Amino acid sequence: MSTPSVAELRRVAQPAGHLDRRNGEHWAGVLYMRRLSIYVTWLMTKTPVTPNQLTWLMTFAGIAAGVVLALPGLWAVVAAALLVQVYLLLDCSDGELARWTGKTSLVGVYLDRVGAYFTEAALLVGLGWRASAVMPDWYTVLGVAAALGAILIKAETDLVEVARAKGGLPAATEASAVQFRSGLLALGRRVLSATQFHRIMQPIELSLLALAAAIVDQFAGGLTVTRVLLAACFVAACLQVVLHLVSIVSSRRLA
User: What is the distance between the alpha carbons of residues 149 and 89, in angstroms, rounded to a whole number?
Assistant: First the structure.
C-alpha cells in the first residue's frame, strides 16, 4: 500500500463521528492526542509495523509508567506521566493504523483491553509502592488493593458480554446501560456519573494527580499528599466495585 497523505489517512483512520463516541474516546484524545497521533500513524504506514505490535508497545509503556512511578524523586513522577502520554498516543495510533490497513481484529481488541487492565493496575501498584515508607507496608497493600479493584470494575463490565453470549443474546446496547428497573437507582447513577469520581483511577488522570501530589510533597516535605491520593483511589475502587455491580444487575443490560 502506498504511503497516504495525512489528509487521506485522517479520512479513513479518524472517520467522521469517531471522536464523538460516547464511551470510546478519552477527553485527552479529543483535546489534543488525536491531533498528534495521526502523524505517528502516518509514519507507521512507511514501516512494516503492525497495529498489534503498536498495542504491545502501548502496554509496555503503560506498565513501565507504573514501575517508574514507584521510584523515589520528582523526576520519577514526571517520567511516569510522560510514559502515560506515550501510552495514550500509541492507544490512538494502533486503532488508526488498523483502520487504514484493514487489519482490525478481535485479537487487537483483546490486546487493547489487556493493555488497559495492566496499565491501570500498574499505576496503582506503583503509587502504593511510592507512598510506602518501607516495603511492604499498609500503603503498599492499599496500592495493590486499589489495583485489584480497578481490575474487578473492568471485569464486571466485560462479564456482561460473557453472560449475554452464554445466554444467546446479542451485545448490550449503550441505551440499556442507563435503563434501570428503579427510578431511584437511575437517579443515583446520574448523580454519580456527574461527579466523575471514578476517573481518579484512570491512567491519564492518575498520572497527572500523582504529579501534582509529588510537586506539593516536594515543597512540603514528606509524602502526605501522595498518600492522601492513594487513599482516595482505594476508597474510589471499593465504592465503584460495589456500585458498578449494583448498577449492572439493576439495569437492562442483562435482560
Answer: 26
All cell numbers assigned to 104: 482490525
User: 177, 253 in Cβ contact below 8 A?
Assistant: yes
Domains of the chain as residue ranges with CATH? 6-250 (1.20.120.1760)
Contacting residues for 17 by C-beta, under 8 A, at least 6 apart: none
Helices 138-166 and 106-131: crossing angle in degrees, nearest 10, is 160
Report the distance separating Cα 212 and Cα 203, nearest Å: 14
* Surface-to-core class of residue 72, CB atoms within 10 Å of its CB (0-12 exposed, 13-18 middle, 19+ buried): exposed
Gap between the Cα atoms of 252 and 186, Å rounded: 11
d(CA 199, CA 187): 20
Q: For residue 90, what is its C-alpha cell?
A: 500509541
Buried b vs exposed e over 161-180: b needs ≥16 C-beta within 10 Å?
Answer: eeebeeeeeeebeeebbeeb
pLDDT score for 177: 56
Whole-prediction pTM value?
0.89
Which residues in the chain come in under a pLDDT of 70? Answer: 1-2, 17-24, 174-196
Residue 178 and residue 189 in contact, taking contact as beta carbons nearer than 8 Å: yes
